[in-house]
Amino acid sequence: MAGLLKLGYLPKLSPGRYLAAIRAFRSPVEARGKDTLQVLYGSKVPVSTLCEPGADLRVLGIGSGSGDVDIIMLKKLLQRHSSVYNRVVEPSGEMLARYKALVREDTSLGAVKFDWRQQTAEEYFQTKEDTKFHLVHAVHALFDVEEHDATLRKMWEQLSDGGYMFVAMQSDKGDCPRLRSKLWEEFGQGDRLKTSLRTSGDVKQYLDTAGISYVASEDEISVNVTECFRDDSETGKLVLEFLTQTPNVSSEPEIKSMALEYIRSNSSLVDGKIYFKAINEVILALKDCAKE
Ligand SMILES: C[S@@+](CC[C@H](N)C(=O)[O-])C[C@H]1O[C@@H](n2cnc3c(N)ncnc32)[C@H](O)[C@@H]1O
Description:
By secondary structure, the protein is of the alpha/beta class. It contains 11 helices and 8 strands. A hairpin with a 2-residue loop joins strand 7 (268-270) and strand 8. Helix 2 (15-30) crosses helix 10 (234-244) and helix 8 packs antiparallel against helix 11 (253-266). It starts with 9 loop residues before the first helix and ends in a 6-residue tail after the last strand. S-adenosylmethionine binds next to helix 4 and helix 6. Keywords: Methyltransferase, Transferase.
């Protein structure tokens, strides 16, 4: 693929590097501890989710990754529900192995039955399944799926009446999507929704068009991006690939210089470190069949 056409194709062209880039971008945030994940996700889980008496609460996770966020969500649900059936759809064997290791180590998850599906969302939605879920979530996974709108539609179809869809994405108001939007304006080709340059705004647009009401909440997070300015830093390269969603961005001088220039003039300098502002947005939609 020619240079500029790689913009927004990091997950598709280089999935292994993409997972490493996510880790490089997120690890300073996750190092702040489980409380951060609790605030960003746990506190937003709808515990009042309706479930038939005596039945398991059924949860479907799309693109669950290594399970850190799922586990925070499951623990919140276990405060109200005595048993949970959790189906995990995740294509990466490496991510699933990490998730399973976390589950093995955590005795508080004994009341959760895990059903592991090593599949993409597209493969999963092709299987004939009648199970309906009380909670269907995709946490920062809609960047990766093939068809953004079709995935949301299929997630919605998986919900039982009174169930919730929970989607987390980066908000358009944050610095990363603004940088990506600038790069796309300059170098983008084709349909942006075919790339990973997607935001919470795209999710809301889909829901508005489909006539689905929702509530949204945002949290601001500062991310240290200082390493991007060190040419010899492997972490810096990965973070820049994450920010631009472009594989091997160091060999794309036009994208790299515009990105670094944008970061330099839109970041804050604190104690010699450069911080970019990310805004995490959680969108929650309740399925009320009487209104549909
Ligand atoms: C940014 S990570 C988010 C992981 C996790 N939900 C979290 O927030 O920690 C995106 C995940 O989506 C997975 N993924 C990639 N392509 C996918 C697809 N087509 N369908 C479902 N998941 C996919 C990746 O393997 C990765 O684990």
